[in-house]
């Protein structure tokens, strides 16, 4: 068997899909009613999208829908991160119900996901799903199922409620009793057994005395993978025993994927931050002469003049320019100081290995909203650029990344002008207020809105020709036009020319030059 067979087996198991029946490679899925391999026939699916925020005040709580007693497989999710919050209300008193007092699973919003609630159910009693409005656009998609074959009724809140059952069943359920030991990568939290009414509502433990109580145990939590991070090993010994040298350390991109796949080495591209240095300079101090007691026993004794002894030069110039060092010792009690050999010397060596070098990041391509930043990335060898294939591809630094100086407000967008329908128009185009992600917005400056309709460019010449030799008309119809148009105002710039050209009898120009045309008296 090959040495990498266990890794290949692990990879195949990770890629294999496991169905809801626990069988590897099975295509069975839970349907909307929570039945493995079902066809959504055992319950009535009720879903909707709540997105109307007209008239809502910031901080106000608005009911989305009522989740009736017996509802199961409940899910509610904000379609995008927002300042609004999902809340649960008591259907009878209207009081807010904390999530930790229910069996609902609450997931706070993340960088690209909105807040969500889920509960397998069934509900022991009706609750109201509501939203605390935080401003801006919103969207909450919800869905739940009602068991079929039960009598239902509809109240003023349009929620469906099944009829009450004559007998209630109780059972033990395991509930989280502590914080998760990890924020990601699969942690553990203590679980305790609680007695619940059929559907999930908490009741005193005496209701379950006739049943065997499960023992306290731990359960998995926060199973999503952790972000990849750079891991640095300890610095190794200095390359020189004295004088300047270098020391190295291991640097790897690692990630905690699950409880069983911890500290896994992954591709360097998975780590978002800049990688730290693998080497650094070090200095063990000046290389001084060795003490006499450290010399061999057969060296000169007494007061005789000794000789200078040296070690071999260090490998200080593995690549580029540097300094080589060596140790110097006297073989006796004293040596001629004028003849002392040098302890260091400069050296230079052509680098045979190529490495990646990156420049500074450019300014963001946009003053607001999403943009891009770039920087030069070169493969250098002996201070000269070479082809990229000479450097390790997996070590290449990022040359481009996303950026955002600040969020943009709404801006006016307009299309090209359409064709003229007649000699004097009108000519029109589309004008929309959009945010930085090209979604409809409402915070554009209304006074800066571009004109959406105008007369054709050929109309001005025609108007000037009609004015020549003409007199102001006295049509009685013009005196009544100010009563036909609400908020009478001039929206065209050439209303004086329209009046002199006697075009106020045309309804288009009469309504767009309402003030000017209404000045004509019979």
Structural description of this entry:
Residues 1-20 form the signal peptide. This is PLAC domain-containing protein. One of its GO terms (molecular function) is metalloendopeptidase activity. Keywords: Repeat, Secreted, Signal. The protein is mainly beta. Helices cover 7% and strands 29% of the residues. The protein has helices at residues 5-15, 457-467, 495-500, 507-512, 514-518; strands at residues 43-50, 61-67, 72-78, 85-90, 96-97, 105-107, 116-119, 127-132, 140-147, 152-154, 160-162, 170-176, 187-197, 217-221, 229-232, 244-248, 251-255, 264-265, 279-283, 308-310, 320-325, 328-330, 344-349, 355-358, 371-374, 377-381, 384-386, 400-403, 411-414, 427-428, 431-434, 453-454. Strands 1-9-3-7-6 form a five-stranded antiparallel β-sheet, with no helix packed on it. Strands 2-8-4-5 form a four-stranded antiparallel β-sheet, with no helix packed on it. The protein has a three-stranded antiparallel β-sheet with strand order 12-13-14, with no helix packed on it.
What level of helicity do the residues show?
A: under 10%
Count of runs of 4 or more consecutive helical residues? 5
**How many beta-strand elements?**
32
Low-confidence spans: 150-166, 289-302, 466-485
Major β-sheet annotation: 5 strands, antiparallel
What does the overall shape look like?
flat
Please give the alpha-carbon distance between the first and last residues: 106 Å
Strand content: 25-35%
Radius of gyration: 40 Å
Mean pLDDT: 75
Structural class determined from secondary elements: mainly beta
- Order of strands, widest sheet: 1-9-3-7-6
Domain PLAC: 484-521
Protein name: PLAC domain-containing protein
GO molecular function, one term: metalloendopeptidase activity
Main location: secreted
């Amino acid at each position: 068997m090959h040495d990498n067979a266990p890794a290949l087996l692990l990879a195949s198991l990770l890629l294999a899909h496991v169905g809801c029946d626990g069988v590897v490679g099975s295509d069975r899925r839970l349907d909307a009613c929570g039945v493995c391999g079902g066809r959504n026939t055992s319950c009535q699916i009720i879903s909707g999208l709540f997105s109307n925020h007209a008239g809502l005040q910031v901080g106000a709580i608005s009911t989305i829908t009522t989740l009736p007693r017996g509802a199961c497989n409940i899910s509610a999710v904000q379609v995008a991160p927002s300042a609004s919050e999902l809340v649960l209300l008591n259907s009878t008193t209207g009081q807010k119900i904390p999530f930790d007092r229910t069996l609902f699973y609450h997931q706070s919003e993340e960088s690209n996901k909105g807040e969500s609630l889920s509960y397998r159910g069934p509900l022991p009693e009706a609750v109201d799903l509501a939203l605390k409005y935080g401003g801006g656009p919103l969207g909450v998609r919800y869905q739940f199922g009602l068991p079929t074959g039960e009598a239902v009724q509809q109240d003023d809140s349009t929620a469906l409620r099944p009829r009450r059952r004559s007998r209630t069943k109780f059972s033990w359920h395991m509930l989280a009793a502590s914080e998760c030991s990890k924020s990601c990568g699969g942690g553990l939290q203590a679980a305790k057994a609680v007695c619940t009414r059929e559907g999930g509502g908490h009741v005193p433990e005496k209701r379950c005395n006739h049943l065997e109580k499960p023992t306290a145990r731990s359960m998995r939590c926060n199973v999503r993978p952790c972000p990849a991070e750079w891991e640095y090993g300890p610095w190794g010994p200095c390359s020189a025993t004295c004088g300047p040298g270098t020391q190295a350390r291991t640097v790897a991109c690692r990630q905690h994927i699950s409880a069983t796949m911890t500290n896994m080495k992954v591709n360097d591209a998975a780590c978002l931050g800049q990688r730290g240095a693998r080497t650094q300079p070090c200095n063990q101090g000046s290389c001084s002469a060795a003490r006499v007691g450290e010399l061999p026993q057969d060296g000169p004794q007494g007061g005789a003049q000794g000789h200078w002894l040296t070690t071999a030069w260090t490998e200080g110039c593995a690549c580029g320019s540097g300094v080589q060092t060596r140790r110097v010792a006297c073989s006796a009690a004293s040596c001629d100081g004028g003849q002392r050999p040098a302890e260091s010397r400069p050296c230079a060596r052509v680098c045979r290995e190529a490495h990646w070098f990156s420049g500074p990041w450019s300014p963001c391509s946009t003053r607001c909203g999403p943009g891009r930043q770039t920087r030069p990335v070169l493969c250098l060898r002996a201070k000269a650029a070479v082809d990229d294939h000479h450097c390790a591809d997996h070590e290449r630094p990022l040359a481009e990344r996303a950026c955002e100086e600040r969020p943009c407000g709404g801006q006016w967008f307009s299309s090209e002008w359409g064709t003229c329908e007649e000699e004097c128009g009108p000519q029109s185009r589309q004008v929309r207020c959009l945010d930085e992600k090209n979604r409809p917005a409402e915070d554009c400056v209304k006074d800066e809105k571009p004109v959406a309709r105008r007369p054709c460019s050929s109309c001005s010449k025609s108007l000037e020709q009609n004015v020549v030799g003409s007199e102001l008309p006295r049509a009685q119809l013009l005196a009544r036009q100010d009563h036909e148009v609400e908020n009478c105002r001039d929206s065209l710039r050439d209303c004086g020319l329209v009046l002199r050209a006697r075009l106020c009898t045309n309804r288009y120009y009469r309504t767009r030059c309402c003030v000017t045309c209404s000045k004509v008296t019979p």
